[in-house]
Amino acid sequence: MEYQKSTRVSLKSHAEFNEKWLQQQITSDVTLLGLGELDVKDVERRQPRSGRLDVLLFDPETSTRYEVELQLGATDESHIIRTLEYWDNERRRFPQYEHIAVIVAEEITGRFLNVINLFNQAIPLIAVQMSALEVNGVLTLHSTKVLDLALPAPEEEDEPGQDTDRSYWQSRSSAEIVNMADRLLEVVNEQGPGLSLKYNKNYIGLQRDGVPDNFVSFRPRKEHLIWEVRIERDEELDARLEESGLNVMSYNKRWRQYRLHLVPGDLKSHGELIVDLVRRARGLPETTVADHG
Q1: Does residue 20 contact residue 35 with C-beta atoms inside 8 Å?
Q2: For all residues of the chain together, what is the average pLDDT?
Q3: Which of 90, 110, 239, 258 keeps 20 to 30 A from 249, CA to CA?
């Protein structure tokens, strides 16, 4: 294999590849940051007193929000202060979520690391060094997580939703995973017809005659579907889910949702349980039914 030498490119001094361009690359492919498969909640998010947060990301699996600030060149004091200020604003406005501050810069300096250490890990913060490299005339981005002080740790929209379409979700996951939402919709309508899918930016919900009715909702991922079912927590149901072998996530207390990772085979293997969950969410009595394929 022939070795191809790369040349580092300074985005700060580049005429075309500026901060706006970097923001667009990240929002188009969040995995560039190395933080996992996250949703883009907002960009250029206006702050209460002044300024705009570059990017707000959301992890529906952990109900965690990431306040992301971008800087070309090396980190400086004003950038640190702005990042922490925006993180603090967001956590005060929406305390129901975990919040993590994220600094993305071309160079994470030793001085920055020294300043952050003064906080004694009291602030959940991630520092990502994002480098632009040119190989044979092609520009690529490479990220390295330099610091991770993040504390261990579907949402209803706190703002008006943004409509999307089926192709948007298929591009983010796959046709097979989005088809699972169709099959689950069939189960829902067997217990009472009239509902259809509503494609939103952060999730796929349900609607009846154009009016949202999200007693169940869906978040397609690359290899699975996050299914959220609004049911009051029940110890007997907890035990039944645990014994089922399904991949069950933590219960969302705020929105009273059971959350499951589903893969295509689950709809056939656990059809009866899935129907019972739908019936509970609709306020109907449990019933024994045949499996759904």
Answers
A1: no
A2: 84
A3: 90
